[in-house]
Design a protein that fits this description.
Order of helices and strands: HEEHEEHEEEEEEHEHEHEEH
Strand order of the largest sheet: 3-4-5-6-7-8-9
Largest sheet: 7 strands, mixed
Radius of gyration: 17 Å
Oligomer: single chain
Structural class: alpha+beta
CATH architecture of the largest domain: 2-Layer Sandwich
Number of helices: 7
Distance between the termini: 41 Å
Strand content: 15-25%
Helix content: 25-40%
Shape: globular
Length: about 260
């Protein structure tokens, strides 16, 4: 599995070169929804990853954001977000990443989050720990909400979730040191795994947003569940809460009043 992780990471580094190469070029942008964007780079990166990862595992399947007809992975499925943070990419804001995970039928076995414009690659394999640029990662040891820095995000269907999001944000802002919203769930999860954020929560995410980051957090010693309801996390769950573990119960209480 570590050998497959290394080979997949090399492929994803090459996909990151596509993003860097096209970063300063004129972008062709279309809308999938009112604020849900896709660029020519999203589709180019996705095509490259499907072709190259398919060569690594010829019997594998793909669940990729720009071509997915479902949100349910099959056995041995690569789960791909070619650019997590497309709106950031469209505006030249460098918090963008490629997120790739390998689903082995009942769990994520590999997770890779590569941020080409920031020069960071986060890797994890089940039972093998998590790293950032080869350095072992661990979640933070923050134990009190007043000392905690959290991350969150807002779904594209913001109107549907507005009241709930504002209520959660109001409670979290009042209880913690601060909240950040960089605009990439996969990077938020990677930063939680690396102890930069103490926790991350969000609503209405898809498997390609969370699969790799979920494994990064758990392999770095953290905890990932749903909130509303408080339950084990699974791909496609309506909510996600990832934390260093020490804050998890307090955050569940805060988010589920």
């Amino acid at each position: 599995m570590q050998d497959l992780l290394a080979r997949a990471a090399a492929v994803i580094q090459r996909a990151g070169d596509i993003i860097r190469d096209q970063w300063s070029r004129e972008k062709t942008i279309r809308k999938k929804g009112r604020i849900d964007l896709v660029t020519q780079t999203d589709t180019a990166v996705e095509r490259f990853l499907v072709e190259e990862l398919g060569r690594l595992l010829p019997d594998s399947r793909f669940l990729a954001e720009e071509s997915a007809a479902t949100t349910v992975p099959g056995p041995r499925t690569w789960i791909i977000d070619p650019i997590d943070g497309t709106t950031n990419y469209a505006h030249g804001f460098p918090f963008v990443c490629i997120s790739v995970a390998l689903w082995d039928g009942d769990r994520v076995s590999l997770g890779i989050v590569h941020a080409p414009m920031l020069g960071e690659t986060f890797l994890a394999a089940t039972g093998g720990g998590a790293t950032c640029n080869g350095r072992p990662m661990r979640v933070s040891d923050t134990a009190h909400l007043a000392d905690a820095l959290l991350a969150t995000g807002f779904p594209y269907a913001i109107e549907t979730h507005m009241a709930d999001i504002l209520g959660e944000l109001q409670r979290v802002l009042a209880a913690t040191q601060g909240v950040r919203r960089p605009g990439s769930a996969a990077l938020d999860l990677a930063y939680t795994a690396d102890g930069r954020f103490d926790a991350f929560y969000e609503r209405a995410l898809n498997p390609w947003d969370t699969a790799a980051g979920w494994l990064l957090v758990t392999e770095a010693g953290g905890c990932v569940t749903q909130y509303l309801p408080s339950a084990p996390y699974g791909l496609g769950a309506p909510t996600i809460l990832a934390s260093n573990g020490r804050l998890h119960t307090s955050l569940l209480d805060l988010l589920t009043p």
